[in-house]
Structure formats: C-alpha cells, structure tokens
Write a structure and sequence with these properties.
The chain is α+β, with helices and mostly antiparallel strands and 895 residues long. Helix content is 37%, strand content 19%. The strands form nine sheets. Strands 3, 4, 5, 6, 7, 8, 9, 10, 11 and 12 form a ten-stranded mixed beta sheet that branches. A four-stranded antiparallel beta sheet has the order 2-1-13-17. A hairpin with a 5-residue loop joins strand 19 and strand 20. The longest helix has 30 residues. The protein starts with a helix and ends in a 5-residue tail after the last helix.
C-alpha cells in the first residue's frame, strides 16, 4: 500500500519543514504533480527496502512482480471501483462530523485513530428554559456537562432520556462569590444532583418537584451564549436520545450536531419534526481545517481549538469566559480520560462538520439500474461475514459488531497523495451534488490512469480532456483523494482479477464462483476495522460478496514482561537485529511457536529458549543427514520385511503425519512446532536413534536391520524436512540440498507426505507401549547405579528384569531387551523381585536388579560380551563386529 498521509507527512518533513520551505499550493497543477512525484519516489524507495526485508525473513513471493497501489494499472482499477459505487447510487456527497486532524489537515478514519490519556476542561452550563413560559419551570435552567467547551458555539439542542428520573432543584445556600447563586432553579437527573451541587460548591439545595422524562421534549431553552456578537438567537430544543445516561454528568447531553456522531444522529432523527416547528436544521461549519472558529461561531472567529502543533488553543478559555460573563457557567473542572489521537502525529483530533464523500450503508444498492428492498451494503456485508471462515472464530463477532454499528463510510481525504475521487459533479442547490454518469467519460479516465497514472487527473486541461464534448456543461472536477482504506479494500480487484498484469493468478476461480480455489487474508487483529473491513465493504458493494473465504488474524508483539514495546522503555526488539544475531529461522520459529490468536511476547530469555529448541531440531536433522550420507535408495527395505522397531517408528511417523496435516490445515503452527519438537527429541533422539546407533555404527553393511534402519531414517528425514520447510525455510532448504542434491531442486517445491496412513499399526504400537514401559523401569534402575558410581556406561550392566504378569512376560518373550535398553546383556525372570529391586509406581508388576555384565569389552562396540575373541582375525571384538570389519574391508572402507 503506497498512498496516504504517512508518506505525505514524511515528504513534507524532509523536503519542506526541515528546510523551512512552504508546502506547495496544491491548487497549482504543476505543483501538485511535482509533489506527487516526490511521494512516489519516497514510496518506491521504501517498497524496495521492505521487499528485501521480506526476502530476508524467508517469505516466498513474486518479488519481481509485486502489487503496489501506486502502479498505474492499480490506480486505474481503484478509480473504476469508485465509479461502480457512483453507478449503483451509494456514493454521495454529504455533510457530517468527521474526526479531523488539525496537524495533518485531513479527515481520519476510525482505523487511523488511537485513544490516549488526555486532560480536558469540563464545564457545567445552564440553558435557560424559554418554554413553557409560565409555571414552575419558567425561570429554571437545564444543566449540561461537557468535556469540550469549545463545541458550545455549535450547540443546537439538548438530549435527554425518557428512562431517566429528573427533578427541579432549588439552590438554597451558596457562597456569595459562587457561579451558582441562591435561588437558582436547575433541572437535573436525580441520580446526579448531589454530585453536580458538590462540583458547583452549593452548600444547600432542595428538590422542588419531579420533572418526568417523558414530558421533557415539551421544553425549549435559550442558548447560553444568546446575544453574543448578535448571534445564538435561536430555540434550543430537547431531543430524546438512547446515548444519554445518568452515570456521569447531569443526565443531559449538550448536542452539537457538527461535532459528534451521536449528536448528529440525534439531530437528524428529529430533523423533520424540527423543520415543522420552524427550527432551522442546517448544521453550521463552526470550525475550519486549521482548528479555528469560523464566522458561524459569532464572537469567537479566529480562536483556535487546537493549533498547528497539536496543542490546546485559546477556544476553551474564550468560551468559558463568555459563559461566566453571561452568568451561564455553573462549575468547571478538569478530567483525565481516553481521547482520540491521530496514530501518525500522536496529537489529539477534533470532530468537525465538513463536506465529504460517503458510501451509504443503508441505501438499497442499484444493480443494472434496479434496486431490491433491503439489499443494502450493510445487509450484504453482514451476510458475507456469516459465510466466511474466521481464524480465530472470535474475529467474526468482532467485525460483525463493527459493521452493525458503523456509520456511512467516509471515503474522501483533503490531501494530495492518493487516487483522486475521479468523478465530475454539479451542484443541486441544496448542498448536495449530482454525479455525472457517462460511460465514455469514465472510460477515458480509466485509460488515462492505466497509461499515465492518477497524475493525469491533476494535469492542466484534465477537465476538458476527460469531459470531451461535455466540457461546455457545468460539471466540475472533484479534487479530493480517496481514503487509503478504499485503496487497500480494492486490492482484490487488481490482484485477483487482473490476468494481464498478474498472469500467475489468471486461473484462480473461487469456490463462491463455482471453482475450487480459496482466498485467505492474513493480518493483525486491528485490521477488523482496517483492511478486512474496507475489503469487505468494497467487494460487497461492487460484487455482492466478500473478497475472501478465510480471514486469519494475529495479535500484537509485546515485550517479554507483557508490556507494550516502547523506545522510551528500551524494550524494543528489531527483527533485523534478531536475524543478524541468530538468523531468520530463529525469528520464524519464535513466530510459529506463539499462540498468534493472542498478543505475543518476545525478549532475550524467550529467544534464548527458541534458540535452544532450534538447536535440538537442527542437531537431530544433522545426525540424520550424516547417517544417510552413504545411503542408496536402491537398498531400501519394504516395511513388511522390517524389524518391529522400524515398523513402530513408521507407525509413529504416520500418526504425526495426520496430526501435523490437520494442524497445518487449521493454521495451528504452534501445534506443528510442538509435535515436531516432541517427535524429534523424545521419539527419535532419545529413543529410536539411541537404540539404533549400535546397529548403524557396528552392524555389517549387509545387515537387514541396518538397511531397515537406514530406510526408516530416510523416510523420517524426508518427511520432517518437508514439515519444517514452511517454518524453518532456510534450514530446511539447506538440509534438503544435502539430503537430495540430485532430486527436487527445492524442498519448497515438494508436497507434504500424504501416503503414510498405510504404515499405521495400532496393534504393534500397543505391544510396544508395554515394552517401553519396561524400558523405563530399566532406565530408572541404571540411573541410580550410575549415580552411585557402580557403573559408568549402561553397557557395563546386565539388568535382571522381574515380571509378575504372564501376559507381559509373553510380550517380552521375543524382544531383545539388551538392544532396547542399550545394555550388554539382560535376563527376564518370572515372579516376585527382591525387596531391594528398583520399581516405578507408574509401571506395576515390573522390578529391576542391575548386575554387572560378564565378559570382555568389545573394542569396537564397547559392549561387554563373553564372545569377544572368538574370531581369531579380529580377537578384540565380537563375532558380529568382526564380520562387519571384513565386509567394510571388502568394500574398501576402513572402519
């Protein structure tokens, strides 16, 4: 994604602010195009930098043909997507309060806002009742509380809740210098009256009577600034609102429809009735793009809400001073609370009423010139969410709630670097605009963007060029640009549907379109309000369905102690630093080991553990590669001819294949890592390889057991490298080139093993579970003897194994337990063992007494055996080892 304010911001900083130069006047087409070229150059540089970083991370991509929203074909398609919304009747120009960054001079989307601690001025303000003109309420005031005093010039109503209990209260005693005076009559929520009077320093008050909430809409008030600079002389009605509570404040909400979404909604919901009452429903433009009051705020024009540095201006104090002078201020204070800030400038934003371009959420979408009742963008999006797979599933509820509650989509920005809102309009006289619907004009725009980029919109003579024969009509070119979220939301349109520029994707046909392909979007959980959100709306609005079948989200990366990473805390870790010190595969293994559905933690100790996990995996792979160095596939043994131990390992491999395949299909990479780590460390290194080292190192090359072991290790190695490849991409590739230098050119071009199910043998596995339990008891007994220094190596031992259970005894009958337990000899006895025998509670009926092995130590295998010396040619080894030496000698290999 190449457009947007972050790039503009950096270009302005490097090319203008740092040099003390004025930003270009974008009304000049040459200046606009030059500035856009600077932005393009900046984005191109960083696209290259980030491409190299992705490569170093081991990410596979078509790096020579990436998608970029600033490419000419992409800009053309983004413009065409916008034209589809114009054609289906959901694009419109309106006036609504939007979040505005004074520092950046642009409207912001929800996804561009972060909530940070901020200290606001708070005021309790009186609105004098003007109707009813007689009775108990005639001389009373409705009291509101607000954290934004600067919005009071934009006040047009007061919101209340019919569900709240209100009362008329009288101040009976207050300090002489107080803003609240003795005798004041105030209308407040009963639940909040005590706190209001406390803030107002009122020492005594009484409740005069109830004021039922369901009668509140009959009350009208005067504006507290009435008469200031000849302004504010209008009725302030009371409006019902679901957003009003009696948790804080006064039970009334000051309503400035130009400065808040809820205020706007409450005002517009009553607009028809207000018009009927003769109340002007036009929403004023009280604050301009610089955060300064306009002439629509009489008495305050030029006062700043926020200045260019993002600091509080003089607006609040000016309004508060005017309230005091008019006797309308009841109390003031300060409140530290969460307040919206721009995620780029980190400065507070404001809500201000501006003309913007919107896509309607609740208007019936026109298809082929016809509309179907209820076929709205919101309805389409909610349905699409329900048929999409969300990983983790909680993502569905999150985005569903956002779509259900979101307002119309603001898609315009008053900036320079982006795709323009490439439409022509003419004013309709009521503040709205008619959009030109002309296919020939749209075609000329699309073709120009395709060849020249969106700069063509800003070139001199662009209006006449695109309008052609209609240039003499009163159509005007829109100069706003599209919100970058519309850009990113349109990526599917030029990545998945453009076979000319992305021929590799030309054959894709999704299941939803009758094909077999699946499209998955992957990003952070914040993108439920960003990329996933805008992509959903864009595609549903133009195609009636989501652009994706699966959406996978991950959490955020935190420091080791769970705190947010911050340069000020010194707890940040740069990916490049980890790569430089440990390699990209360490970072990849850490990622795969995390529960990405939650926030992930990283730090020196966590990485240390990851390095240790990697080291064990790598060492096991290295051992297999070394063992297979002289192995020839032609020597492979069929599973049916293999000893039980090999067939057991093939069974275990098949079991892991099913579990790993399932985990990969479910995007459960943490489980993949856990299965592979346990398999390589516990099943292979600590069990199978440990047992078979004697066979591999000391058996003659003609040995069936040795050939079976090599055949098994070959299949283990191939399968493990393929399973590791998506995670340890560099290590797996390096190992693959050593494993199969003359086979497939890359492990990443191979398929996962999918034909292992026939190797499963659950009956054999159950039998070996018994054998392994016996091995555990023997190993425990040997450890005690080694700790007591009665033996050094396990090969110095000949354990006597007592078995009480005859069924177990039958299982052990034809098993070489010396081989399984890595001892020189063994003996199995039926019956009760001596009391001193070693036992494990987890393995009842088995006990072991460790005796010393009898015989001479073989110089080759180190086993102790009475057969050493039986072969006169090799008198210091066993007959097995003597035969191995003869065979290797015949092959010309010195062993």
């Amino acid at each position: 994604d190449c457009h947007g304010l972050p790039i503009e911001w950096k270009v302005e900083e490097e090319h203008y602010r740092k040099k003390g130069k004025q930003k270009p006047d974008f009304r000049d087409s040459a200046a606009m195009i030059d500035f856009r070229k600077e932005c393009r150059a900046y984005a191109t540089h960083w696209l290259g930098v980030q491409r190299e970083e992705f490569k170093r991370l081991g990410v596979i991509g078509d790096w020579d043909h990436p998608y970029a929203t600033m490419s000419f074909p992409a800009e053309a398609q983004i413009a065409r997507e916008l034209m589809k919304f114009a054609a289906n009747g959901t694009l419109y120009r309106g006036s609504k309060p939007v979040m505005w960054s004074v520092v950046e001079k642009t409207a912001l989307a929800e996804a561009e806002v972060e909530y940070e601690d901020y200290t606001s001025d708070t005021v309790w303000v009186k609105f004098p009742v003007t109707s009813p003109a007689h009775g108990a309420l005639a001389s009373a005031s409705v009291v509101i509380w607000t954290t934004t005093p600067w919005t009071l010039p934009g006040n047009r109503a007061i919101s209340f809740s019919p569900k709240i209990g209100y009362g008329l209260y009288k101040v009976t005693d207050a300090p002489a210098d107080n803003w609240a005076k003795t005798g004041d009559l105030l209308i407040l929520a009963d639940a909040l009256a005590e706190e209001v009077f406390k803030q107002a320093r009122v020492t005594a008050y009484e409740k005069v009577r109830d004021v039922p909430g369901d009668t509140m809409d009959a009350i009208e008030c005067a504006h507290p600034l009435k008469g200031l600079a000849g302004g504010y002389d209008f009725i302030v009605p009371l409006l019902p609102g679901d957003h009003v509570t009696d948790d804080t404040g006064t039970g009334f909400v000051h309503t400035a429809p130009g400065h808040g979404r809820e205020d706007f909604d409450a005002w517009m919901a009553q607009a028809r009735d207000l018009d009927a009452r003769g109340i002007n429903t036009a929403i004023p433009y009280t604050v301009d793009e610089n955060g300064a009051y306009t002439d629509h705020a009489p008495g305050f024009a030029g006062k700043r809400v926020i200045n260019d540095k993002g600091e509080k201006g003089d607006a609040n104090e000016a309004v508060i001073k005017a309230l005091v002078e008019r006797g309308m201020l009841l109390a003031r204070g300060r409140l530290k609370h969460q307040y919206p800030h721009s995620w780029r400038s980190k400065k507070p934003v404001i809500f201000r009423n501006t003309p913007q371009w919107f896509i309607a959420m609740d208007k019936d979408v026109a298809a082929d010139g016809k509309t179907k009742s209820g076929d709205t963008l919101r309805a389409r999006a909610l349905h699409a969410i329900s048929v999409t797979q969300w990983v983790p599933p909680s993502g569905e509820n999150r985005i569903n709630g956002m779509i259900e509650a979101r307002p119309d989509w603001v898609i315009s920005r008053q900036r320079a670097w982006g795709v323009p809102i490439a439409v022509f309009v003419r004013e309709k006289g009521d503040g709205s605009a008619e959009i030109l619907q002309d296919e020939a004009v749209n075609t000329r725009i699309g073709e120009a963007f395709e060849q020249e980029g969106a700069d063509a919109w800003y070139a001199k003579g662009a209006r006449e060029r695109f309008l052609g024969s209609r240039a003499n009509e009163d159509w005007q070119k829109v100069d706003d640009i599209l919100d970058v979220w519309f850009d990113s939301g349109s990526t599917h349109a030029f990545v998945l549907e453009d076979p000319v520029h992305f021929p590799g994707l030309a054959g894709i046909k999704r299941k939803v379109d009758g094909g077999t392909d699946t499209v998955m979007y992957l990003e952070g959980s914040d993108q439920h309000r960003g990329w996933f959100h805008s992509s959903l709306l864009e595609s549903c609005g133009t195609r009636g369905r989501a652009p994706y079948d699966i959406v996978l989200t991950h959490g955020f990366t935190q420091a080791e102690d769970g705190r947010k990473m911050s340069k000020s805390l010194g707890n940040t870790i740069e990916p490049q630093a980890v790569i430089k010190e440990s390699g990209a595969d360490i970072l990849r293994l850490w990622v795969a080991s995390c529960d990405y559905t939650d926030d992930q933690r990283i730090g020196p100790e966590i990485l240390k553990n990851t390095v240790e996990t990697y080291r064990k995996l790598r060492n096991t792979v290295r051992w297999m590669l070394g063992t297979l160095h002289h192995y020839k596939p032609a020597d492979a043994i069929a599973p049916a001819e293999m000893p039980e131990l090999e067939r057991l390992m093939l069974h275990e491999l098949a079991v892991r294949a099913a579990a790993i395949g399932k985990a990969y299909r479910e995007f459960d990479y943490k489980t993949v890592v856990a299965i592979l780590s346990a398999f390589l460390n516990s099943e292979l290194s600590a069990f199978y390889f440990d047992i078979r080292k004697d066979t591999l190192y000391c058996d003659p090359p003609s040995s069936l057991t040795r050939k079976a072991a090599l055949t098994t290790i070959d299949l283990l190695c191939a399968s493990i490298l393929k399973w590791l490849a998506p995670i340890l991409s560099f290590t797996a590739e390096e190992a693959w080139r050593m494993y199969r230098p003359d086979a497939e050119p890359s492990v990443h071009l191979t398929l996962f093993p999918n034909d292992l199910e026939s190797l499963r043998d659950d009956k054999l596995a159950a039998r070996w579970e018994t054998i392994r339990n016996v091995r555990r008891v023997v190993t425990g007994a040997l450890e005690l003897e080694r700790a007591a220094k009665n033996i050094g190596s396990s090969l110095e031992a000949s354990p006597v194994i007592y078995v009480a259970d005859r069924a177990m005894l039958a299982t052990l009958f034809d098993v070489d337990l010396a081989e399984v337990c890595i001892t020189s000899n063994y003996e199995v006895r039926e019956g009760e063992a001596p009391a001193s025998a070693f036992r494990l509670d987890a393995v009842p009926g088995v006990a072991v007494v460790v005796e010393k092995a009898v015989g001479t130590k073989c110089a080759r295998s180190w086993k102790i055996s009475p057969t050493v010396g039986e072969d006169p040619e090799y008198p210091d080894v066993t007959p097995r080892d003597a035969q191995a030496l003869r065979e290797w000698k015949a092959l010309g290999v010195g062993v």
